[in-house]
Every structure is written in C-alpha cells, then in structure tokens.
Design a protein that fits this description.
5-stranded parallel sheet; alpha/beta; single chain
C-alpha cells in the first residue's frame, strides 16, 4: 500500500531492544544494575539520545498497553511538570519524543496469557528435569552477562550488544527449548511458546496500526526479549523497511554477549 519495492520509499521501522532500566524484577531474569539516574549514566543517556535522534523518528512506540496514563504523564513532562523515573520508556521514549517535538507516544503492548508456572510443574512431574536445569542455567547466565555489560559498557554499547544477531538468537533460544517439554498427550511447552508468539503478533499488529504514511519513521522501544520476533515481522512485511538499530549504535569489540 505504501509503494512497490522499486518505489521511492516505504515506512521505516526500527526495533530497539532494551533492558528494563528501572529493574522492576518482573522478568524471569533478574539483575542488579547501576542507577540509570546517576550523573555518569545520565551523560551516557544523552549520548544515546543523540545517536537515536539521527534516525529522526516521527513516532515512538512503547511497551505499555492502551489506556495507561502515559499520555497525561508525557504531556506533563513536556510542560516541565514531571521528573523522570529511571524507566527506559521515560529515559529514552519521553526524552527523545520531546526533543523531536512529538505530541504523544504510542502504547502498543498486548498482555499475553502464558502458563509458565504450569510448564515448570509439568516438567517436574514428568521428570523432564533437563528443562528445569537449563532454565536455571539460562537465568543465571543471562543475569551475569547483563551485570557484566553494566560494569564494562556505556548504555549505548550495552544496547548494541543486546541488539546483535547473536544476542537476539541467544535470548530466543529458550523458547525453542520449551517446545520439547511435553508428551504424546500434553504439549505445555508448545502452548507457552504459542502464547509468546501470539503476544508479539498482537504487538506487531498494534505497530502496524500507527503506520499511516510512507514518510513514517517509527522507533519501537521494547524489552530485548521481544526484539527478534518484532524485527522478524517487520522484515517479512514487503511494504515496510526494517532499520537496524546497530546502524545508530556504537560498535562493541567482538560483539560479545
């Protein structure tokens, strides 16, 4: 609808996977990280925002559900009435939106229904202990990697590592492992993974609804666990142009996890 592959342009979408800077402990992988509001981190944040501004986003989509208080809070922030929290939606989304003159941000999240605890119970009862052991190793390893990056890298460098092909595949691999949990009569792993895909498909559908013209340049700001699927969906749409966030982030030696 926005022009052929040979046309003059398509809407551009950048999916930027990020860590949860306020560290609310809601994810399975829980980490201890430095305070994003410290003077050192705030200087790094300003450099990150300068890089992202080069993309010149016309809209910013964030990990909140429709009906949240983001509209009121963002408006008050633009008016100078709100002091920002350390949350990445505010530190990146609010600050970049204001710098780009945006009147609003776009909540595109969709909450999913995934019986993760039921999956773990099944694995234990069915004596598929390999999965529980792998899950424990994955959570510990991912937390250690995140904390090591937090010690070694700037915020922009951390995001560069997290959005690398290697890192996206690593974090997605645990869902592929889940598919093996089950037996001839029950497929709890498949059900959980299907729920994960359904949530991300719904998020993508919400993103598509805010694409309104060929000149749109949309920055999707989301937890890094979603970045691979959302990026894949954008790449597979023949009327969208996927923009690699690594084009706007600093190089990290070795691109290690």
């Amino acid at each position: 609808p926005f022009g052929s592959a040979q046309g003059s342009g398509k809407p551009k979408v950048m999916v930027l996977g990020t860590y949860h800077m306020a560290n609310p402990g809601l994810d399975y992988v829980r980490t201890k990280i430095r305070d994003t509001l410290s003077p050192e981190r705030q200087a790094e944040m300003q450099l990150l925002l300068s890089r992202l501004a080069r993309f010149e986003p016309t809209k910013i989509a964030v990990e909140l559900v429709s009906g949240s208080r983001i509209a009121e809070r963002y408006t008050n922030y633009v008016k100078g009435k709100v002091e920002l929290s350390s949350d990445e939606i505010e530190q990146i989304g609010f600050r970049l939106g204001k710098a780009m003159g945006h009147s609003q941000l776009y909540p595109v999240d969709c909450r999913g229904d995934m019986d993760f605890e039921g999956l773990k119970r099944f694995a234990e009862e069915a004596r598929q202990i390999w999965f529980l052991e792998k899950l424990e190793r994955f959570a510990k390893d991912a937390a250690q990697r995140q904390e090591e990056m937090d010690r070694r890298y700037t915020i922009a460098q951390m995001l560069a590592v997290m959005n690398s092909t290697k890192s996206l595949a690593y974090h997605h691999s645990i869902y592929i492992d889940m598919l093996r949990v089950g037996d001839e009569e029950n497929c709890p792993g498949v059900e959980v993974v299907a729920g994960w895909y359904r949530r991300n498909l719904a998020i993508y559908a919400n993103i598509r609804r805010i694409v309104q013209s060929a000149s749109d340049r949309i920055l999707v700001l989301y937890g890094a666990g979603h970045a691979k699927l959302l990026g894949d969906f954008v790449c597979e749409a023949d009327d969208l142009e996927f923009v690699d966030p690594l084009d706007y982030l600093p190089e990290v030696p070795g691109q290690g996890l």
